[in-house]
Amino acid sequence: MSNVDYKVLVGLEIHVQLYTRTKMFCGCELAFGAEPNSRVCPVCLGMPGSLPVMNKQAVEFSILAGLALNCQIPSFTKWDRKGYYYPDLPKNYQISQYDLPLALNGYIEIPAKDGSFKKIRIKRAHLEEDAGKNLHTAGNFSQVDLNRAGTPLLEIVTEPDMNTAAEVRTLAEELQRIVRYLGVSEADMQKGHMRFEPNVNLIINRAGQEFKTPIVEVKNLNSFKALENSINYEIGRQLDRFLETGETMEMGNKSTRGWDDAKEVTVLQREKEEAHDYRYFPDPDLVPVRVNEQWLNEIKSRLCELPFSRRMRYTKEYSLNDYDAGVLTNDRQVADFFEATVQAGGEPKRVCNLLTQVGLKLANARGCAITELGPKPADIAQLAKMAQTGEISATAANTILEEMVKTGKAPRELAEQLNLIQKSDAGELEGIVDEVLKSNPQAAADFKEGGKKSGKAKGFLLGQVMQKTKGRANPKVASEILDKKLA
Amino acid sequence: MDKKIDKSQVKKVAKLARLDLSEAEIEEFAGQLNAIIDYVERMNTLNTEGVEPMAHCLPVSNVFRQDIIKESLGTEKTLANAPEQDGAFFKVPKILEEP
User: Fold this and answer.
1) Is residue A29 part of a domain?
2) Buried b / exposed e along A158-168 (16+ C-beta atoms within 10 A)
3) Strand order of the sheet with strand A80-83?
4) ipTM value greater than 0.90
5) For A199-235, how does the pLDDT look when each residue is reduced to its tens digit (9 = 90+)?
6) Do A87 and B89 touch (CB under 8 A)?
């Protein structure tokens, strides 16, 4: 085989379902799992004489997301009709935005392998309405449920700036965090709140000549894992196909493939994308949106610190490692809770350990938020302080937090009740150390002598002290006393 | 004057609109569409230099509603005009791949 080198290019189209109460253009409730066709009105049905009216919340959510994605927000945007011919949108068109989207030219930053950051450019983000659902499982006909028809969707389109499947996944997860932080979407992939459609192709360099493989759009991805796996699969498939057939990109040979989650392969859905003639034209039923400075500033004021910068800040300000910072900032509520606890006097790393090792586990097991576990930031800060001063051990702190959640009692009360207060009283510990030294003269001698045996002997003596105090001696204090006695 | 719309264009537009037209209709509509285009063509005689493209014919913008739930029709009324239904669903001919 000749010398073949290749580069992967992936761009993403992402549909994000906005977390509004009602649909984009009518007051029908957004209700996942409701009785079919129970959230439908004349607007959803495209009845003659009905008129769509914009949901202000959806427009503001979109602008907010656009700002968070570092986009320009044009002062003028409008609505267009896009030709559509399936029964899940009875109007026969989808209301969307064609040439004047709500947001343009932004970027998302993701961490790169070498510790630096990579900007993935956002081409545009526009608002549109979702279609209903067609079901094909009933027999020789299809069923249509229009409950979802008209749901506000923010479509975000990136430039093909991602070069590995892992990068795509990182970006997708970052975007999920961003829209959740902003509160503009629940972003649950299983429920279809976020739908990712990657466009994948390769630039192949063979013997100094460059070839581009035809672009493939992958659909039907219901998890981040599927997103990542499907791209890796496509890379291999496209490389094999190029080596076999030499087919390269040309007009009209873009195809659509669906991901088969069970077989872990992509399956051809549509061969030649017809030069799609959606016949967009301005929707006469909807007036344009003008965004003036005052309104834009008002929306800007709702921006929060985003997960990316928060993560960075945690490593700097609290000296946490990347992993801990990532876990804490993954969810805005958890991050807020963490900060409140630190503010109440908890040492950051200790609070982090308590929350990640105990708090998040318990919250997960109970299927609740960390704020709903019971203990308040002040309680946990107190617990962290007790561990910090050596009043209790780190292990005891974890046990106490579990008990706090179970019983709702205060940390000190539990520490006393469970006998977990460490003996730090030097006078009392000295007596115990003396006893231990008396009954273990050989170890005491080894320790005093120094050298190889010394460390082992000290460990043994400390162990004896722990045993005598049933594990409640403050190891730091006990060790200091030992050192002093045998110096 | 050259015909702007020929029969093949009428067929293409009909296909995109999922309309099944007879030869006679195609002929007829080609004529009608040309008449419309010729009429609208008169706009081209106007000087539009420096005029912003118009997105909407009314000088109105930002007509919003608040995000407040309104009662929907309910399944029964929603399906009342459906030619066919299957339980709580609209029943339509089997949807296959793109036609």
Assistant:
1) yes
2) bebbbeebebb
3) A93-96, A80-83, A281-282
4) no
5) 999 999 988 899 999 999 999 999 999 999 999 999 9
6) no
Among B90, B94, B98, pick the best mutation site for testing chain A contact (most A Cβ within 10 A).
B90
Whether the Cβ atoms of residue A86 and residue B95 lie closer than 8 Å to each other: yes
User: Residues A413, A434: one domain?
Assistant: no
Both A106 and A18 in one domain: the answer is yes
Same domain, A261 and A346: no
Which residue does chain B place closest to A273, by CA atoms? B98
Q: What is the pLDDT of residues B59-93, one digit of tens each?
A: 899 999 999 999 999 999 999 999 999 999 999 99
Which CATH number among 3.30.365.10, 3.40.50.850, 1.10.20.60, 3.40.190.10 corresponds to the domain B1-46? Answer: 1.10.20.60
- Residues 51-90 of chain B with CB under 8 A from chain A are 55-58, 60-75, 78-79, 86-90
Inspect the interface and report whether the beta carbons of B95 and A134 lie closer than 8 Å: yes
Give the Cα separation of A461 and A474 in Å (integer).
Answer: 14
Q: Name the token pair of A117.
A: 């950051």
Name the pTM for this structure.
0.85
CB A216 within 8 A of CB A266: yes
Which of A28, A86, A100 faces B72 most closely, judged by CB atoms?
A28
Token pair for A258 = 């669906």
> Do the domain assignments include residue A299?
no
